Structure formats: C-alpha cells, structure tokens
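Re: the 198-residue chain
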Amino acid sequence: MIFTLEYGRITLPAPIREQLDLYATLLLEWNQKIRLTGYSTLTEIRQNLILDSLLAFELLRDRLPDEVIDFGSGNGTPGLIFALLAPSRSFILLERTAKKRFFIEYAASRLGASNVRILPSLTNPIASPFILMKAITLDDLYTDPFIRKNASPPCTLFRFGNDSHPACIPVSSYAITGCVDSWGKPKTISLTESIFQG
C-alpha cells in the first residue's frame, strides 16, 4: 500500500497506515483542548509531522540500536511514529510537560505501541545512548541535568525538523547527526548534515 502525501510517497503496510491515520486524528482532537501542535488540519499534521518522522526513519532504519531516546517528545513525534515502524526496538519518550505526557500515553495505548515508555526525564543510566531530537536545541540537551547524569557519552544525536520552530532554524529540511564525546567543558561534538526530505 502507498501512503501518499502532497510532497512524498512512502510504501507502508495497511495496518501502519491505519495507525498513522488514527494518530493524526487523535492529535487533532486533543489539540482542541491542549496545545500540542500549531497545525490545525489532518493534512497539515500528515505533511508536517508524520511525513517528517517517516523520512527521518527511512534515513535511520538500519542504524537504530535496540533502545532509542526521543528527547522532548512533545506530541509524540518522532518517537511514537518510530515505535510503530520498529516494534522490535524500545523507545523512551522524554517529555517534561504533564499534559503532553498524558496525550502520548493515551495515543500509545490506542495505537498498541507497547514498545514505548513515556517519562518526564531520563531516570536510569544508559551508556552510549541514541538520542532523537525534533525542534529541540542542543543547549536544551546540554543543560538537562538528568541527561547529563544518566546518559553516558559517547551519545549519538539525530536532530531534525521541517517546521518554523526557532530550534530548527537553520537546519530546516536537514538532519544533523553527531556525537557528544563528553559532557565536560568545552563541549565536544562532531556534526554532519544529511538531506532527508522527499
């Protein structure tokens, strides 16, 4: 089956496509009560949140470890989308805001995504973590005390976004992949850019 959007085409099995449609519907419904996204139509959610996550997943699918952290998960993207596409891997979705966590927990339950844990912060030590970030700045990561305490470098980072959030400028339409070698000062990080948008 083909999941077709205005500017992208990715082949997906029908059950995944149905889950993504359900996610978009849930997000739109909850967004009327609590602000989860600036997008207000199903088409905008599919084009700007789901497709972005699908394209990132296509770039990373062969490099994902058994456990992945989504730092600042917000409305569940990209972590929840990744979890649906890679059910054999575990995903930790970190979101500080309680009402956003409630939405992610509800959506994960409705979607049958049993391979996710939704937490306010990283509570257990993880060596050499793989961290996804969408619309989150590197400073947010560097200054998070729980990340610094529990994520032992080297940490592989994958930061991406195709939206107007200031944290994504000037990397809109690009992915920045890097590695934090140390949490000490000065911060050491190596970055490479990859175009991943369709």
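The chain has six helices and eleven strands.
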